[in-house]
Amino acid sequence: MGGARLLPWAGSEGKPCYLMTDETGSGYLSRVADTIESVQLDMAVELLDHAADMLADDKATPVQLHFLAARMAEALRDVHRIAESRGARLPEPAYDGPGGSGE
User: Fold this and answer.
1) Domain limits of the chain?
2) What is the pLDDT of residues 44-91, one digit of tens each?
3) DSSP 20-56
């Protein structure tokens, strides 16, 4: 690990916020970020369940569906940021050349 970690929240003016970490990435702010990511992912799952219920209800109003879509866009934005952050922290895959196994 080490280097810059994309945090699960935006900085001023909605710009990405980064944390410079050590090799372990286990400092206080890294743990806070891990906790926030976990909460965001749990909220996204709950929102998906709510969306399934609402879409199955033929009495859902356009206003309710608009509100649901707005919250889902927010959750998708959060989940995308988490995936981007975690993907950037993966080790580079080994490359053995043409026909190599890459392991």
Assistant:
1) 3-88
2) 999 999 999 999 999 999 999 999 999 999 999 999 999 999 988 888
3) EE-SS--SHHHHHHHHHHHHHHHHHHHHHHHHHHHHH
